[in-house]
Amino acid sequence: GYAKTSRTELLHFTVGGKDAGWMDKRAFTATLDKATYSKMSRGAKIGDVAASSKHGLYTKPNNTAEDGEKIGLGSLYANQNVQIIQSAKLSTG
């Protein structure tokens, strides 16, 4: 769960699978992945809608920054030729 007021943001959480309640977001330490970036320059083609719609499109590599946002699905660019300019290897594999 998630709730936001004019003063704070609250997060609903569980411990050991059991409901623990709601607490101010400021009490939590973010657990974000670390990304190692590499510059690239190569062509590629995005898969068809069936394949690309299973993958999110983000402003930053997913779960690497609190201000990263999901902006759509890969199907937005289905069957298009693209230029890959950077890769990110995440600490979680």
UniProtKB/TrEMBL annotation:
**GW domain: residues covered:** 3-29, 50-91
Which Gene3D superfamilies does the annotation name?
2.30.30.170
- Tell me any Pfam family this protein matches: GW
The reply to whether Signal figures as a keyword in the UniProt entry is yes
**Which keywords does this Swiss-Prot/TrEMBL entry list?**
Signal
Its protein name is GW domain-containing protein
